[in-house]
Design goal:
homodimer; alpha/beta; nicotinate phosphoribosyltransferase; 6-stranded parallel sheet; 5-stranded antiparallel sheet; 17 helices; 13 strands; 44% helix; Nicotinate phosphoribosyltransferase (chains A, B)
């Protein structure tokens, strides 16, 4: 065997192994939302924070702040590449061409930048936790979400891998691949199942996510409908999947000047959204302030939307509720889409598929337990590679606090007095308090 | 990433990917027996045959004869390398230096060669099977055994791998590694267990065997006592493990000129062996014509031998029988060694260790189910990679048929009338008919 002298020397010369190497390495819905914000709220200022809901894992013990800063500076130095912008302009998304306007693409090339940030080592009860805070124009803050989550997630992975021997690393990945393939084999027994990959933000690593997506794409045929990761969609000719997130209704709610405006803001988001997007991109996320009240109070035209994504309610209940609501409004549920995306794994995907089959077009957005399921894989039995609940939340908009109630009491965010006010406005019926896994 | 032009072009230029690349890539006991034969029977002619006891697998469908011949010609072209001979001369085996005589090493360098061979496509009931036949001086035939078995075994592997995609190959090895590591984890819970690797002849492939041996060596500490593979021992500073095989008593039996000589020949082997070897190499293999009769008729000095290898009897029974026999002869069984080597897997190794612990020094010779356990690993659920029962048997010595009775009725080999004659001479008590797994 010949020695590759250049490669060997280069392997000793590495300064940084960047985690996020392309601005497209983000969820597709962030780009849709970015255009939405650029168009409708270009001057609004916001603050977002990344933190770890899994308090037992102390991030500061695993992630050196200096290294995190290096990774974040690398991302800030990235620009959209010419061929990426051409792809955004020329590709069809959900069958539609020119989803991104020329003015927006021009701004992506010449005007887009990422806001400044703080890395904060928390103290007191949160001792050992790290928090990232982003403040600035909403257009400069919003894209940090996925980059920052993916950076923190993969830096934690690297820290856990650093103590393992070559054999242990090999065993670790063998087990994770075995586990993945067992899941794929289960899914292959049900040809009609539909799922896409939603796991960028809490992935084990970029390369593992790419491996997982490649394995699903190769093995599942039409059951695998695509990836939320825009870079992977671009690189591997996949469908880029996603629509919108809680960030939008939360911001519009924060900007409301009265309780009436606050209540109306949840539909105002949809009104604005459908000015820019249509068809499969009209998938609403009704749980921000409670799904039941959202549906009850929705104007008639909301029933024309293509589907619903369920992110914090038991999808069996939420799906039935949505079907009943559609029927009440004279719409054929079998033509609508219902997407579940909250902590799914293969068993639940199959259960939901069987439950909703023929009643509504169900598809699963499979996230953390697809791209970061190393449970039971650690060669020393350690928990250092098990997924944690990393989240990024909008904290304030133009200085006003941002609030989410959600369908799960434990997922409510915002100051207590604001949560109370929101509960008065939106009601607080029919919320459960399920434990949050990821 | 730079392209390695030379490597890429070379990968298209390969003519042959040799399976056996060193004459040391054989069981250590073959070298011990080769010296024994070279010393005591340099002019004896024998015939050996390699065949497949697993009739459901038709070798000819998987192994092109031309390619097999190319591999065998490659082995025939090999010579002992200078550094290999220096290692054989200078290394200590079982703590003893100079096990190989200078004259023998000189002959290995200048006089050793492999006999001619035939590759026979069988017909009739055996349609689809391949047989390899080796005829010539015993010193030229004997070494073919392991080379030929390893070639056939790995060529079958390659044929099964050839239809798999890159992802499927990756899944296959991930599963096999997961399985191996699960076995290692079980063994690690019992620090006192002792085992060595005996799986050259039926290995999945050389590289897999090397991986497995590396994993055991790294993970099991002193529980892993070494490998029977001399090349791996040489390459990785392991103990080379092994003593002798049925080939010796079978040949001496065939050479016997009377029933009395036939009966005595089973002890004559030991007499000759102990002229060349001592200590840990004095491990007898008493099952060739039945263990019980062997022990009953053994001269007193046989009880001085260091241990016994059990290859065809239930080791729980054979071990108890050996301990009782040692006790009867006034020997302390706790100082003796008892080795089981027949179709073991981790459960049985742990069971035997627990059973014999403190009563005799038990160790396991772990073969096929260590180096070729791909059961349940095939990504398409196919059986093409499950181990088969490939064997090499001495067929005749100086034109006389060679016979083995063994402790398992199904493992008897030789012409029926000769088996009958041997059974008259040796008796046929206490043999079972367990199914042969590998």
């Amino acid at each position: 065997m010949q020695v590759n002298f250049a490669e060997r020397a280069h392997n000793h010369n590495w300064k940084l192994d960047p985690i996020v190497r392309s601005l497209l390495d983000t969820d597709f819905y962030k780009l849709l939302m970015l255009q939405f914000i650029w168009k409708n709220f270009p001057q609004v200022h916001v603050t977002s924070e990344v933190f770890n809901r899994t308090l037992s894992v102390k991030l500061a013990e695993h992630i050196p702040i200096d290294l995190l800063r290096q990774q974040m500076e690398f991302v800030r130095g990235l620009r959209f590449r010419k061929s990426e912008l051409i792809w955004l302009a020329g590709n069809t998304f959900y069958g539609t061409r020119s989803i991104f306007e020329p003015g927006f693409l021009d701004w992506l090339e010449h005007g887009f930048k990422l806001s400044d940030y703080e890395i904060i080592a928390l103290t007191g009860e949160q001792e050992g936790q790290l928090m990232l805070r982003f403040s600035g124009l909403w257009t400069e803050v919003t894209m940090w979400e996925i980059y920052a989550l993916a950076l923190v997630s993969e830096m934690r992975t690297r820290s856990a891998l650093a103590v393992l021997s070559e054999l242990e690393l090999d065993v670790l990945y063998a087990r994770a691949k075995t586990k993945l393939w067992d899941k794929i084999e289960r899914l292959r027994t049900v040809p009609g199942v539909r799922l896409s990959e939603f796991g960028t933000r809490r992935r084990h690593s970029f390369l593992w996510q790419e491996y997982v997506v490649g394995a699903l794409h190769t093995s599942l045929g039409s059951s695998f409908t695509g990836s939320s990761n825009t870079h992977l969609a671009y690189k591997h000719d996949l469908e880029a999947i996603g629509t919108n997130a809680h960030e939008l209704p939360m911001a519009l709610a924060a900007l409301a000047n009265s309780d009436e405006e606050l209540y109306a803001s949840q539909y105002r988001v949809l009104e604005l959204w459908q000015k820019s997007y249509g068809g499969e991109l009209l998938v609403m996320l009704p749980d921000t302030f409670g799904t039941t009240q959202f549906l009850e109070g929705a104007p008639e035209w909301v029933a024309d939307w293509t589907g619903q994504r369920c992110d914090s309610k038991d999808p069996l209940i939420a799906g039935d509720e949505y079907i009943a609501w559609l029927t009440k409004h004279g719409r054929d549920a079998r033509k609508k889409r219902f997407i579940a995306s909250d902590g799914l794994d293969v068993e639940q995907i199959l259960e939901l598929h069987a439950y909703f089959n023929e009643r509504i077009r169900f598809s699963a957005g499979w996230g953390t337990l697809l791209t970061n399921d190393f449970r039971g894989c650690h060669p020393r039995g350690d928990a250092a590679l098990e997924p944690i609940s990393l989240v990024c939340k909008l904290k304030s908009v133009e200085g006003r606090p941002a609030v989410k109630l959600s369908d799960n009491l434990r997922k409510a965010t915002g100051p207590a007095e604001e949560i109370a006010r929101y509960r008065k406005v939106f009601g607080s019926e029919a919320r459960d308090g399920s434990a949050i896994l990821v």
